[in-house]
Amino acid sequence: MRIRFGCEMGYEFTHPTPLIARLNAFPAKGLAAVPPDVLRIEPPVPVKTFRDTFGNRAVRFVAPAGAVSLHVRAEIPDDGGLDPVVPEAVEHAVEDLPEEALPFLVASRYCESDLLSNEAWNRFGHVAPGWARAQAVCDFVHEHITFGYAFSHVDRTAADALAGGRGVCRDYAHLFVALCRALNIPTRYCTGYLSFIGEPEPHGPGDFAAWTECYLGGAWHVFDPRNNAPRRGRILVARGRDAADVPLTHTFGPNRLTKFRVWAEDATQPHRE
């Protein structure tokens, strides 16, 4: 099958403002998007595309004063399968981990794994290491946090989410990341498009989603504490230590968001407006 995905974001700038956008799918071999997965900007401006520290695709440009629109519209092949569940995936001793996993063991801006170490071991130290322990953390976070867009707060950390028990998908992800790292499970923060394919109606408005990946059994595996169930049509945009590493748009000056629309859907079905 093919997944149709994209977004439309409108801004109002008071003066020319530098901007970095991460809105395109993460580069992956054999997954070329048709039409090409490019960021269109109106009015057109010169852009530079680059890979950031974590290999994410980013676009930088200077937005002119006034109204500016960002658009992504593409389709990508998908096997139609659910996120894999691998209960036999083992946990690795820290000394046996590959170097690429080590940055995802330490505390970061929104994931204070050092401060939550006692909490993590008290709650999950008795659980068998490996997939079962990561899933136990996922179950706890899913049940502990109450979801609501009104609860969104840009400065909320994992410790705040644990104390307050409410938030949005990035808060679920941050708390899961922090607890897993405290348990010596390398875990990274992910953001991207997530479809409603196969999910019961009614569907909410489209939005970008946050989830996580744990290094277990020699590979990275998806854990989604917000939904806590395998999903179809997950399109990665960017991954990093936490949300501070992968803002979808990073504007270096004042602005006002005037439009926001996101979708990820079966390309054989009519586009949902």
TrEMBL record:
<keyword id="KW-0645">Protease</keyword>
<keyword id="KW-0378">Hydrolase</keyword>
<feature type="domain" description="Transglutaminase-like">
    <location>
        <begin position="161"/>
        <end position="227"/>
    </location>
</feature>
<protein>
    <submittedName>
        <fullName>Transglutaminase-like enzyme, putative cysteine protease</fullName>
    </submittedName>
</protein>
<dbReference type="Pfam" id="PF01841">
    <property type="entry name" value="Transglut_core"/>
</dbReference>
<dbReference type="GO" id="GO:0008233">
    <property type="term" value="F:peptidase activity"/>
</dbReference>
<dbReference type="InterPro" id="IPR038765">
    <property type="entry name" value="Papain-like_cys_pep_sf"/>
</dbReference>
<dbReference type="InterPro" id="IPR002931">
    <property type="entry name" value="Transglutaminase-like"/>
</dbReference>
<dbReference type="GO" id="GO:0006508">
    <property type="term" value="P:proteolysis"/>
</dbReference>
